[in-house]
Amino acid sequence: MPAVTADTATLPRLQPVVTSARERAVVSVTTAPSSFEGEGFPVRRAFAGVPAHLLDPFIHMDQMGEVDYAPYEPRGTDWHPHRGFETVTYILDGTFVHQDSHGGGGTISNGATQWMTAGSGILHIETPPEELVVSGGLFHGVQLWVNLPAADKMTAPRYQNLEADLVELVSSPDGGALVRIIAGDVAGHVGPGRTHTPISVAHVTVSPGAQLHLPWPSDHNALAYVLAGRGGVGAERRPVERGQLTVFGEGDALTLTGTTEPFEVLLLGGRPIREPIAAYGPFVMNTRAELVQTIEDYQAGRLGRIPEDGIKPYRGPRR
Length: 319
Description:
Blueprint: E1 26-31, E2 34-37, E3 41-45, H1 52-55, E4 58-69, E5 80-82, E6 85-93, E7 95-100, E8 105-109, E9 113-117, E10 122-127, H2 130-135, E11 137-147, E12 158-162, E13 168-171, E14 177-183, E15 185-186, E16 189-190, E17 199-206, E18 211-215, E19 223-228, E20 230-233, E21 238-241, E22 244-248, E23 253-258, E24 263-270, E25 278-280, E26 283-285, H3 288-299
Antiparallel strand pairs: 1-22, 2-3, 3-4, 4-11, 5-10, 6-9, 6-11, 7-8, 7-10, 9-12, 13-14, 14-17, 15-16, 17-24, 18-23, 19-22, 19-24, 20-21, 20-23, 25-26
């Protein structure tokens, strides 16, 4: 890790933050508990214990791995439904295969992102390909759920395959930090992901001893999840390490500081939707009545059907 690297000396540089910017203070630091998802792959529940209003418009996030699988150990998910939000799967190491009932699909690996708008409803599968199951190997990724406002809950499903070379790469003013912008506008630099809800998603590497002082929209929240390493957050350089989520307060800028090892951070920010949420498993709506209707629609096959050529999880030869 990370999958996408670059010589920061050759990249466009962020402009220094203006001296009048309000620094965002650290509101909380929480540690993600470990669990298992799908057919048994290990995850860290990044948002566990954080009040929903501080996360809005984000709903859920899992760090998948980092795990070095033995042969026939890799696992994914089987076919399952979604409605009412978007899933963002960012793969740092390893490979996942995606297919959905709306015609989307492809292979994502080593720095690529798949952005699936479930909208009115979709069935999909994410699973390691047969060759990875057979060989084993390193796997590390993140899946993020982004809420859709009520007006967009029933929008038509959409799939975006964002290859690693599409990510916008910039460096800090001193070249000590690499910023990979996956979606949204970060200090005037725009990532390739098209979003319904105004958000920014960026993967940052801060070199040991370096500091990133980054402008951040005042109407967005600001979250920093540590993917690997350790460092400091905020002007006070509060210590954080792998598996911890920082929630920042209000302001126009935030600070990340490297210590003795590369500091890998996923930065998230979005304009809060501030609408009621009614969630049940893979469905995120606004009211209980909408949830009941969603379940009825799923049972009736109205969220889509598995294609005749639908892929299946590969588990290895029968014993």
